[in-house]
Design a protein that fits this description.
alpha/beta, 27 helices, Glutaredoxin, 5-stranded mixed beta sheet
Length: about 700
């Protein structure tokens, strides 16, 4: 059997070592020969046979030369060639079009070449109608749009609102056609963002706002319109359908980070919207005829009033007209329906108005008729012993009627009852002495003067606060976690009283002597005294009003004890999360699209081929140097067999090596004694000292 030669055995290992350089070389050749030519098709200058960026005069001379050949019959007169040459001539002799093509590679009418080639494939090119391109002069100032330049750019960007900028060309037909869409965008963004237009001739500012390829060339992914936003020194470009709906939705979601307002049908309105709105928020339903997405104004309002109201859209259909009339008394769209407390009549506004009209409606109806007592509303409602009355800081006595209970049907019924009680007190007229009712007047007067407030409290979420006021054997029917299928709402009235003399004496006493631990705990009380009374009568509105009036009258006229205590803190209830910004799935799609666009930009970079070739050469040189170094500095070890050494000799040498290693281990074990006293020399003599007792 023939032995394998060293050269033949090292060939596979050599190819394996040079795998990376070979791969980079093949990739560089593929890029240079196939990918790069597709990224750089012949330019319009090449069609006319002139240098890139030639002047208009050179272009005209080249065109005249080609035209003279055609007239004499010496040149090839195919319709396709004529269309390309004529198109290049018209494009490069127009100063605006030539500028856009040279600086930004914009050629918005290139599709005309392919269309004419198909149309006149078999006909004489003399039948082609000239000119191929229509000259357009677009001036946005005539349309009433605001323009910016590099001179006034810094002065106009002093507003905190973001800007939406359209970059246009004065000679672009697409920009002129886009004016209608831009007018709609401007109307939708009124009051939410600023807007302006920038002409491509302002090279300095356009270069700052536009995207740049890896080579540094300025470009736009959309031919004529590029939406850019500047806020905190950054820009964003828009990619997508050039419609008012798509652009405003992108701007409101990506740039402004506004929450979305979804559409619901009559089947899903209750289950997916009304039942999921927190009980402390107003429900706003917007009826639309067109079904277009929520405008930025509506979405901005949804963000500004997030703690007060939740918004939803409903598409109006004529077949559902009777349903909406019976349910919400909506006659037609557009309309706005505001639903407040349970059992209260919805407030309906028909027609469409401007931004101010819409915001005024929300501002007037943002509060519930019976507001919820929360950590964020206690001071505003005057239902806090650490605060003051709604009537002013000079009022020393004020009241808060609180409906306490867990979320249930019974609580909703009592909320409806308390709303009617509050409404009756608001409408009570005490100017007529004949119609005055002594059993109602105290409560009505206190309510009108803002000394009597109404609120409701979630007894389960605010269980400590609830138990502090409801101290009875049946308090678990009202406060805390539901233990039985029993829910008993309760009406409480809390009398707050501030005594300036008592407060001053307490402060003077605490300032003279140092406080002990017990004194500190005793002095840690609310500044206002509280007296709490629970209503145990029927749920009849007249009875509740008379009871409230008696409590107010007694609190104002009787000398009640001044007792202060430490009220438990209201637990900050978790706010409803705001679903704003771009969804995660859309973000992932955008990142993938951005990555793909980046890859395409690099594939069109002419420096990629030489870079890959240089990488292949450097990698090959590194592999050769490492292999040469390992072959010259290879250690001469006896146990390392040569490639052509027989297998028997190798095994024999290994056995000998193992035997020598075993002998070395045995010799080391014999030379070292187990202990220093184990062995005694033969010629050893014991010498006794002179003072030894052996004598």
């Amino acid at each position: 059997m023939a032995k394998e030669t060293p050269a033949s055995s090292s060939m596979p290992s050599g190819l394996k070592a040079y795998t990376v350089p070979i791969f980079l070389f093949v990739l560089a050749m593929f890029f240079q020969l196939f990918l790069l030519p597709r990224s750089f098709p012949p330019s319009h200058y090449d069609v006319l046979g002139v240098k890139m960026y030639s002047s208009v005069d050179d272009v005209k001379d080249a065109y005249q030369t080609v035209a003279s050949k055609w007239d004499s019959g010496s040149g090839v007169s195919l319709p396709a060639d004529f269309v390309k040459i004529q198109y290049a001539y018209e494009l490069l002799t127009n100063l605006v079009w030539k500028r856009d093509y040279d600086l930004y590679a914009i050629d918005e009418s290139v599709h005309i070449i392919e269309e004419l080639e198909k149309q006149y494939a078999v006909e004489d090119f003399a039948k082609i109608k000239l000119p191929l391109l229509e000259v357009v002069s677009y001036e946005p100032e005539r349309e009433g749009f605001m323009s910016i330049t590099s001179q006034d750019f810094a002065s106009k960007f002093q507003d905190s609102k973001p800007w939406l900028i359209q970059v246009y060309s004065s000679g672009s037909n697409s920009s002129a056609q886009f004016a209608t869409v831009w007018r709609r965008i401007v109307a939708l963004l009124d009051g939410v963002a600023n807007h302006a237009m920038l002409e491509l001739g302002d090279v300095q500012l356009v270069t700052y706002l536009a995207e740049k390829k890896p080579t540094g060339q300025v470009f736009f992914r959309k031919a004529m319109v590029y939406i850019s936003e500047r806020c905190n020194d950054y820009t964003l470009g828009f990619e997508g359908e050039l419609s008012a709906d798509a652009i405003t939705d992108w701007f409101a979601t990506t740039v402004l980070g506004l929450p979305r307002v979804f559409y619901h049908t009559k089947e899903t309105l209750v289950s997916k919207f009304l039942s999921k709105v927190p009980p402390n928020k107003v429900k706003v339903i917007l009826f639309s005829q067109t079904g277009e997405r929520a405008t930025p104004i509506v979405r901005q309002a949804a963000k500004d009033y997030w703690n007060f109201a939740s918004l939803s859209h409903v598409l109006w259909r004529e077949e559902d007209a009777s349903f909406w009339w019976n349910a919400l008394e909506v006659e037609s769209a557009p309309a706005i329906v505001i639903m407040k407390d349970p059992g209260s009549k919805p407030v309906v506004y028909h027609g469409s108005g401007n931004r101010t009209w819409f915001l005024d409606i929300l501002e007037q109806n943002k509060q519930l008729l019976l507001p919820q007592l929360r950590s964020t509303t206690s001071m505003e409602l005057g239902c806090d012993a650490r605060g003051y009355s709604r009537a002013g800081y000079d009022k020393v006595t004020w009241y808060c009627a609180i409906l306490v209970g867990r979320q249930s049907v019974e609580l909703n019924k009592m909320r409806e009852t308390m709303c009617r009680v509050q409404d009756a007190l608001s409408k009570y007229d005490d100017s007529d002495d004949a119609s005055k009712d002594p059993s109602i007047t105290p409560a009505a007067s206190a309510h009108k003067s803002k000394r009597l407030s109404f609120a409701w409290l979630d007894g389960e979420a605010q269980n400590k606060y609830c138990f502090f006021y409801v101290q009875s054997e049946t308090s678990y029917d009202t406060c805390g976690t539901r233990r039985a299928p029993i829910d008993v709402p309760r009406i409480l009235i809390v009398r707050y009283h501030r005594n300036a003399t008592e407060t001053a004496n307490a402060e003077q006493k605490s300032s003279k002597w140092p406080k002990t631990v017990w004194q500190s705990e005793a002095d840690d009380v609310d500044p206002a005294a509280q007296l709490v009374v629970s209503y145990d009568g029927t749920a009849e509105i007249p009875q509740i009003i008379k009871w409230l009036s008696k409590m107010v009258d007694d609190g104002d006229n009787r000398n009640l004890p001044f007792y202060r205590a430490k009220t438990p803190e209201l637990v900050p209830e978790s706010a409803e999360p705001m679903r704003s910004g771009v969804p995660k799935t859309v973000k992932a799609t955008q990142k993938l699209l951005s990555l793909w666009n980046r890859i395409k930009d690099y594939l069109a970079d002419p420096r990629m081929g030489p870079t890959l070739l240089l990488g292949a050469l450097l990698s090959a040189g590194n592999v050769w140097w490492m292999r040469s170094r390992s072959s010259t500095q290879q250690p001469a070890q006896t146990n390392q067999p040569s490639p052509n050494q027989p297998a028997d000799n190798v095994e024999e040498k290994k056995k000998k090596e193992r035997k020598r290693e075993q002998r070395r281990r045995n010799a080391k074990e014999e030379e070292v004694p187990a202990s220093i006293t184990d062995n005694e020399p033969k010629d050893a003599v014991q010498i006794l000292s002179s003072g030894s007792d052996s004598d």
